[in-house]
Specification:
The chain is of the alpha+beta class. Helices cover 53% and strands 23% of the residues. It has four helices and three strands. It starts with a helix and ends with a strand.
Length: 138
């Protein structure tokens, strides 16, 4: 603690030195915080899109019809939402019919990738996002 106090109070031409040590750390913390906020918002939006796609597709899921219509409807919902999202992450979508509580349900899994701050160094390879939702017909 005394070393930090001495460092802060030193005045023998050390302003540039102080800035050289403290400036980059403050910059990285600020930009890293903004990057983390962006990733959190992207994860929330991707999950919201998966939820909406599952519900939209489940509306077309009928025991008497083919499941392809439900998958196509969910895929169309995802495509529209992703086109409306500026700077949307790259994504892969999977639509499957699953058994849930003795009935059929549509499961939508969206896997997204967003580059990270400092050319994908923090975290290495960028950010990976997942939106996973299931819905049953009403």
């Amino acid at each position: 603690m005394r070393g930090i106090e001495r460092f802060v109070r030193a005045s023998e031409g050390s302003v540039a030195l102080k800035f050289a040590f403290v400036g980059p750390a403050v910059f990285l913390l600020a930009v890293g915080g903004i990057d983390l906020l962006t990733v959190t918002r992207s994860q929330d939006r991707l999950q919201t899109i998966a939820d909406g796609a599952a519900v939209a597709g489940a509306e077309a899921l009928d025991p008497t019809t083919d499941a392809a219509a439900a998958r196509m409807r969910a895929a169309a919902f995802v495509a529209v939402q992703m086109r409306q999202w500026p700077d949307a992450p790259a994504y892969q979508a999977k639509y499957e019919i699953v058994d849930q509580a003795g009935g059929r349900a549509l499961r939508v899994v969206l896997r997204g990738h967003r580059p990270s701050f400092l050319a994908n160094m923090l975290p290495p390879g960028g950010w990976y996002l997942v939106g996973d939702a299931s819905a049953t017909p009403v």
